[in-house]
Amino acid sequence: MGAMRDFTELTAWQRAIDLTEELYRSTSGFPRSEARGLVDQIRRSVGSIGANLAEGAGRPSNTDFRRFVGYSLGSLNELEHHCIVAQRVGFLGPQHAVAVLREIGEIRAMTVALRRSLAKRET
Questions:
Q1: Is there a domain that residue 53 lies in?
Q2: Is the predicted pLDDT of residue 2 greater than 60, yes or no?
Q3: What is the pLDDT of residues 42-101, one digit of tens each?
Q4: DSSP state letters, the chain
Q5: Range of 25's domain?
């Protein structure tokens, strides 16, 4: 069994919360017609990345934590999809989209490394 962890010390969580803040600001400039569409989807998926890391860190076992890390990876993939759509329809400018997609990739790499680390501790 693992001890409860301070999720705020996880670099992946720190980067995820920064990305959440950035995308909340960016999506506030999307067309009003997207308030219940792409804006909600982006905000929901970006918010769940850090939220799942936080929830998993509070779980009693590495196995449970790893499961929530997996949920974060799913949210990263979903977010990447929504950001690609936002770029393709012109809501995210090309340079901003490249930066956001790069950050998603970097957070994904950290999250995959965290999941691997937790898997090693299970055996």
A1: yes
A2: no
A3: 999 999 999 999 999 999 999 999 999 999 999 999 999 999 999 999 999 999 999 999
A4: -PPP--GGG-HHHHHHHHHHHHHHHHHTTS-GGGTTTHHHHHHHHHHHHHHHHHHHHTSSSHHHHHHHHHHHHHHHHHHHHHHHHHHHTTSS-HHHHHHHHHHHHHHHHHHHHHHHHHHHHH-
A5: 7-122
The pLDDT confidence band at residue 35, using thresholds 50, 70 and 90, is confident
Place of tokens 């920064």: 18
Do 84 and 102 contact (CB within 8 A), yes or no?
no
For residue 45, give the CATH number of its domain.
1.20.1440.60
